[in-house]
Amino acid sequence: xxxxxxxxxDAEADGLCRPLAVDEPLSSLQIERAPRKMPFMPLxxxxxxxxxxxxxxxxxxxxxxxxxxxxxxxxxxxxxxxEALARGRGALNKEEEAQSAAHExxxxxxxxxxxxxxxxxxxxxxxxxxxxxxxxLTIRAFFFEPFKIPTGSMRPTLLHGDHVFIKKYRYxxxxxxxxxxxxxxxxxxxxxxxxxxxxxDPRQDYIKRVVGLPGDKLRIVDGSVExxxxxxxxxxxxxxxxxxxDERRLEGHPVVGNLVFEKLGPRWVQTIHGPDIHPFYxxxxxxYFMHGTSPGPVAFDxxxxxxxxxxxxxxxxxxxxxxxxxxxxxxxxxxxxxxVPMKYLRGTATMIWFSHDWTDPMIPAGAFxxxxxxxxxxxxxxxxxxxVD
Length: 389
Hints:
The protein is α+β, with helices and mostly antiparallel strands. Helices cover about 25% and strands about 30% of the residues.
């Protein structure tokens, strides 16, 4: 006697299996499987139907105008159009399938003489693509643009491998491929992180922090910045370990520096001092003028640098800014090449939208290497003020 379990009875009832006849060969047995149900398909279909009904509402107006004599419609095309309009109205009342009704109505409108007064779907699609491309380029040219942090000169605020958005309209948008502004925006403020064209080669983009404004008198003594006779307020933050990176070799090695909080304008910012203390950077410009000390070729004392210098201090000329990296002993900035013309400002950094550590590569591909993702840094505010308490 064969005992049939409850599960087998349920399966037979659902058509998933059946008993094999006594004289039936095993090879004739076919297993029937129930179709897999996609849980999101009803939602997708509902969204598509909603979009189709919105399209039908516009098409009904166009089709009715054609039948009312605004355009001369041949009788055969008019008959098809009436049928398509009726089906479109039925789709709005949920008596017809919306997507197929929308397609049929669009075809009926186009097949009438209306096609002589409108663009073909292919050309219309190309124009829509061109519109969206133009919109994206407009946003990139005048509003926001992505920027990759190319070096470690802005540590610890920005790391090598961070990608940020810059707000281009902050200082006023520029005509594409020029330094001429369409209109002037807000003036830069001390402490802002700015992307600008490199004064020595405007084809390159740099990112630094605004330290000196036009008319400011600056010098650096033992690593402390003095602006207009007053040293910027500082607070010690202890030791900090970070990677000194080499992008060409896709590698980095840890070094230990001093974390120093510095008040620039109304905000506190984080800076790193050391581990390599160079007299040029920490006793500027005195070390250069009095002792001839420099890390290499410098250009801040050249004519047109935007700085007017004596052995004891430098004054920022009108129309220029004095920029410094937060990694004070690892940044070539205005101490080396002078001021930045304000017309070269491209925008201010706003948010980190992507960050990866290319010294730990997941996809090694030379300049296009993708490293381990730094999830904690993504979508963080570049200008968030650190806790100095």
